[in-house]
Give the backbone structure.
Amino acid sequence: MKPIDAIPIRPAPASDVAGNAPALLHEIAAALDTLLRTGREYCIDLSALPLSPADRDLLREALGTGEVRVDLDTLGNSHIEETGVPGVWWVCHRSEDGVLLTESLAICRVPEIIPAHPADIAMGLQGLQERMASREPGGH
Amino acid sequence: MSAETNLLDFARGPALEAALIILVFGIFWRLVGVLALPRTRDLSEPRVRHAWLGGVKTIFTRMWPRREFRPRILHWEAVSYIFHIGLAVVILGLVPHILLIRDITGLSWPGLPDGVITFAAGAALISLLALLAHRVTHPVLRQISNFDDYFSWLLVFTPLLTGLMAYYHLGGRYEDLLGLHMLSAELLLAWLPFSKLAHTVFFLFSRGVTGAVYSRRGARI
Amino acid sequence: MGELEETVLDAFRRGGLSRRAFLKFCAATASLLALPPAAATAMAETLARTPRPTVIYLSYQECTACLESMTRSFSPTIEHLIFNNISLAFNDTLQAAAGEAAEAARKEAMRQAWGKYILIVDGAVPMGAGGAYCVAAGQSAVDDLRHAAQGAAAIIAVGTCAAFGGIPYAAPNPTGAVPVSEVIRDRPVINVSGCPPIPEVMTGVVVYYLSFGMPALDHQGRPLAFYGNSIHDRCYRRPFYDEGRFAHTFDDEGARNGWCLYELGCKGPVTYNACATLKWNQGTSFPIQSGHGCLGCSEPDFWDKGGFYRPLSAATGHWPRGEVLGAAALGGVVVGAGMAALARSHQKTSAAKTAKEAGSPPPKEDPHER
């Protein structure tokens, strides 16, 4: 039997044509304009689009790198970073074993997943108050 | 389960088998039936030694109109050629067709890219429409046309149309269109030996016999 | 009754997970379902209010590969969430209880959630011999299914066996197996076909149902979100098909170059599933990417279509081509010769008749005239 490396298999060549990125940039620009005028948020699911490596490079290059980077540690890692275009966020959700669940571009002031929710704040407050109460009377 | 998938299964299964049996049976029946018919003896002195050579020659000379007729029919001859070549390219060049032929006969050859096939099919389809228009508008042609002509036209047109529709997913799900395409083509195969479409096989014999008879009599062919 | 039911979000919280985990879960699922991203928000809002559902998973004539597939999905987190945190599941293969205890647990779960539970059925239902081919705890599969269906809010047929009859339904179908939709005829059944189905599809359909209700189905009862496109139309090898570049064998130049597998019997053009987009095994690959044509496992009767390696355009029948067509040719020759002979004798008699009337001998006929 041949060793596996000796079997001449060539993977199908990856496309090096950036066919979809330019259209995507137009979509982002339109969404930003809407956000500015009406405050309506927008989201583009990158994992559902057929993007070639060249498309991704072009997208990264055009959007650049911004100032904010957020790492969420829940159900595995999530990495959210603002691109060089304020209001455009690159969102990457991964599962606990590191598999990419979904990748998207969120066009908003801040992605919904980041700010604390009133219900959670209330629960946190309740917990904090309970802890404060249990500390005070005993005094130790 | 579903009527739609059953249509394709029926087309690929029993319908195909039946169509092929009728086609082969019909062609041999008609061919042997015609060839074995008695013909009256030509008592005249043969003007040439090998009259059959004239028959072979006629098969080719009849592929193009004589000079006298050209001004009147050359353009329709050209349209007819476009149709026949287009149809031949589609039938013999499309890989799924070759695979079907390979499955039945064991013969195989390389296929053509789909762009070429689409172009040929489009050309065949348009020329077929033009030929139909010609047939119904031309006073003489209309007089000598009967049900056979129009039905045969329909049976050639339908597989071309449904084939293109199936390929481009126009007007239905692929498997339904493919089933319709195969069924219409099977109807064409079964109809072929008993209609004017039998010229696909008979043209060789009719031209050959005509050529041989006239050649024997010393006519210019 | 009366007390507030636990919602899906509550179940998340009880499992020690935050609202952000919940949002992330919704984003991932919406993406999986190919829903517009805005649907993730809608999904989160709905699920936060939706009572935690009960899922009853019943297995009949099946091989357990559907369950194997589901428990080996690429994002175990999500599947785990759906079948442990989100829903209370009954599955006799996965649960620890057995025998009387298991039956009692199922009856209790069904009684409590009667009219509200999601019923997942895996496997075909044998109707032959009064349903005796598949009996558990003294009850036949068909009776069991009819009863369970009465209390179900939704019925999901998982796998090609449950959806279309599958392997047990294959000719000659000795057990009289039928798909779920043949037993439950008075209401829609969501068919999640595949042998097995893609795990993400199975879970995605459950989440979709919880968030938005009944999904849009195709004419075979399959959710359009996953079964809306043929494998062929989403196949990365499609350009080779268009260019007419095909692999002729599994080890030729074309196969090595990753050309189209149509000639090797790929059923991608008539198979509707999400394999080409979602892929299998942590998104690694799918059959065509691994060099093998699609078998068409998510379509009805996929095993009875002439053969996995026979091209789609070829005949399905296994009749001897040479013999049958040779016999047809021979038959044609015989009939043709017979007709010609008949014509000859007819000609002869009519000629004789004419000659008799005219009083002259019939003209001689030359049978060897060229």
About this structure: Residues 21-135 of chain A form a domain with the Ribosomal Protein S8; Chain: A, domain 1 fold (CATH 3.30.1370.140). The longest strand of chain A covers residues 65-73.
